[in-house]
Amino acid sequence: MATRTTPEIGGMGHSVKRKEDPRFIRGQGTYVDDVVLPGMLHMDIVRSPFAHAKIKSINTEEALKVPGVLAVITGKTLEEYKLHWMPTLMSDTQMVLPTEKVMYQAQEVAAVIATDRYTAADGVEAVEVDYEPLPVVVDPFKALEPDAPVLRDDKEGQKDNRIFHWEAGDKDATAKAIKKADVVVKERIYIPRIHVASIETCGCVASFDKAQGKLTVWMTTQAPHAVRTVLALVAGHVGLSEEKIRIISPDLGGGFGGKVPIYPGYVVAIAASVVIGKPIKWVEDRMENLQADSFGRDYHMDAELAARKDGTMTALRIKTIADHGYTNAAAQPAKWPAGLFSICTGSYDLKSAFAEVDGVYTNKPPGGIAYRCSFRVTEAVHAVERMVDVLAQKLKMDPADLRKKNFIPPEKFPYKSVTGWEYDSGAYEAALDKAMEKIGYAGLRKEQAEKRKRGELMGIGISSFTEVVGAGPSKHFDILGIKMFDSCELRVHPTGKAIARFGTKSQGQGHETTYAQIVAEELGIPAEHVQVEEGDTDTAPYGLGTYASRSTPTAGAAGALAARKVRDKARKIAAHLLEVSEDDLDWEPGKFSVKGAPDKSTTIQEIALAAYTNHPQGMEAGLEATHYYDPPNLTFPFGSYICVVDIDRGTGEVKIRRFVAIDDCGNIINPMIVQGQIHGGLTMGMAPALLEEISYDESGNIQGGSFMDYLLPTAMETPKWETDHTVTPSPHHPLGAKGVGESATVGAPPAIVNAVVDALSHLGVTHIDIPITPEKVWQILKGKGVAE
Amino acid sequence: MAKHKITVTVNGEARSAEVESRLLLVHLLREEFRLTGTHIGCDTTHCGACTVLLDGKPVKSCTVLAVQADGQEIQTVEGLEKDGQLHPVQEGFWQEHGLQCGFCTPGMMMTACALLENSPDPSDAEIRAAISGNLCRCTGYMNIVKAVQYAAAKAR
Fold first, then answer.
1. Do B8 and B73 fall within a single domain?
2. Is B83 part of any domain?
């Protein structure tokens, strides 16, 4: 991509080295657990061993005898302050601490406050809880049966375990199209529960200053401003008022969606600090993190794809059962109970589609957070990209040809989909062609045919996904009523340096660098002279935070537009300094010059100084602007991935031999950072495809609640990713950019599954659910009589 | 609980502490010595965020008792930079975009230092094997491998 600024300015398109790195490589980041305050106490949590049980009694006597244990907080304690329940982000309710029963294994039951973390853990051991086990509902299909016990009997009018029923698209037209289709393929596709498992777990340091009445919370949150408002709304009655609440989200060790919800631990720590009047630190351990924090996915999808004989796809229908656990704590925009699942027609010009989702309560921890994706787009993409391959197999067509036949053509953008989306821009075939060329597709197909004759198992899988990111336009998107705009407050200092504050919060994405580059692009102030700050609600402008690849589409746009407001004022000052009319000025990054007399110019730094020392009479001094950006539409990044796998007939092991990823996120701010996001995203796409799964036995015991069983990819399994890109700018984003942080996590899993199924397709295999473990593959090979 | 007096050398400096038998080395470093660059990411010795060098060998300091380190030499991320000069490994991670959130980075860099000490010209496969006990959720490891190669080339 051509750059408009010099490397010294470092605007868009430059691989500027990250500004945040000097502190991280010296071990000088400040993560929540690094915060230490005078007199700080520690909290640890008693958790339920049962998935569903009545609490008969909680005996805290022995715990309180442990030297150093100062308090044990139970649901009854919180009930006195009416803080034992809290709302979820989807307007459901969730226990902070239970007073009557527990609803999932590892649920918080009580909290111990002590002088240090070891003593707090001793206290947890000494708390005695007497439980009476209740019938457990694990299977969401059984939960919907008429005789299933109603789990949420605390909710008035709740007569079954259904949370919601949601539909998108035209049901009748889709049914009709499926009925008259030449060919219809069907699959049951399950995407299991998975956990984001950021390497930093969740935690907080809550510090209530009784004299000032001010609460400060250092917290692992991706959305600090929303947290502040929610706290003010739910704890107003105990004296917490929004101007006296300060949420600081310091350096975060990854987020991926897992740090959007407000977990009970935070609330208990805050309540304890308010009551005790001392700072309280709570940092969960890994097992607590994996067992109790919100989960992603858990979608059971029945998908049908209809087509004509020539491969023209005519209709898609998906019926989904969504396991949300014991409460609907999904981190999703309020009007979208199934998130953006209706993007399920993907990259294809489908004339009819219908999707329905039923959300179900079970005795599991809350699900419904996005595992590095934009609200269920991964589930949607998985379904459609899998089904396209199933159809190709049925029609004996090459999956690349079938995709090309059905892609939305470039001339149809902006494209209105049958489920109601307006795709901003796309050039799908170009991306697939580039991927096929880079990987040598035709040659690979030949190799595969030869290997197949020799009995060797090799597969090639394609995924041509479309994402939908950047929530969002406020007419459609809000969380608890708060519209999903985002913001930037930009101030240029007299010496021409600047500070820019945003309503988002980086968890590793590199905002301190990329946002500075946006300001550099628009003002010509070198990126190294732009200080970026986020995450402190006392100083940053209000915004909804970072998740769903929304930072660049929303706050990034706000940064560009705030900078343009600054530039407009700078133009007036420049006209004053150069004694010409504003219309007589030309702008290039960093300076205004007089039209026709380019040597008569003034730099942005000179203008900044003048804004404080020599501004025109009648103009306000200073050089700053704020912009709250409400995007007119979402952005639709896309890409085509091709994966080549070899399967070991002896062990069932799938080895990714090559993986080519062509991404298109519109105009690129920092190519190095975008590539890093793709590498990480691909690895987090491979993870659930091959390794990660959280499941439960029929008693509701979690299987895989530690890193012993929940397998994150290491450097050994992770292949060498081959990345490249095409550039199709977003027509509505001020920088022509789209979000990118999650594309690869969304697009990679079906490419891998399609490759594995492709390797086994001649044996009659049409689908395998993720994670594709060696055992699963070996069982198939054994069943087909080809295991070695 | 019984307390033990221990003395360790941390980044070249002798430090003493009175510790409980059960105190983990990582907590000694983070909480007693306030060296918070060493992080904690799990409790089962899998993630490697807490990796430090104990007498030159990489160990996961969440699985070593502080008393076991008595009399030994400990190197942490805070000791990598010398006289205002970044260690080649630090430089490599910055140059090659080998980190994103930065949480696994100190442990990852300590493991890399130990590798390069024994194998100054490692292959990519060797690097991947060496860091296989350090989990990174952000980078997909590719740039970490490049970062270690950068450091190896720089140090040679």
1. yes
2. no
Q: Do both A363 and A478 map to the same domain?
A: no
Helix, strand, or coil (residue A629) = strand
Range of the domain at A259: 37-134+202-283
**Which residues make Cβ contacts (< 8 Å) with residue A151, sequence separation at least 6?**
A52, A103, A137, A143, A161, A326, A361, A362, A363
The verdict on a CB contact (< 8 Å) between A286 and B43 is: yes
Range of the domain at B100: 88-155
Kindly tell me if the per-residue pLDDT of A473 is higher than 90: yes
pTM for the full model?
0.98
Test B43 with A675 for CB contact under 8 angstroms. no
- Cβ-defined contact of A201 to B41 (cutoff 8 Å): yes
- Residue B37 with chain A: CB contacts under 8 Å: 26-29
pLDDT of residue A704: 80
Beta bridge partners of A186: A304
Distance set, CA A604 to CA A4, A232, A495 (Å): 16, 41, 10
Percent of chain B whose pLDDT exceeds 70:
100
The answer to whether residue B56 sits within a structural domain is yes
A225 plus A81 within the same structural domain:
yes
Query: How are beta strands A478-479 and A482-483 bridged, if at all?
Result: antiparallel
Nearest chain A Cα distance for residue B8, angstroms = 20
Chain B closest CA to A707's CA: distance in Å? 6
For residue A660, the surrounding DSSP H or E stretch is strand A654-664
CA distance A472 to A332: 11
- Say if the Cβ atoms of B78 and A27 lie within 8 Å: yes
Q: What is the block-wise mean pLDDT of chain B (156 residues), using blocks of 10 residues?
A: 94 98 98 98 96 98 98 98 98 98 98 97 98 98 98 94
Q: How far is A295 from chain B (nearest CA, A)?
A: 16
**Domain identity same for A582 and A653:** no
Give SS3 for A395. helix
State the total domains in chain B: 2
Facing residue for A29 by CB, picked from B31, B102, B131: B102
pLDDT recorded at residue A1: 61
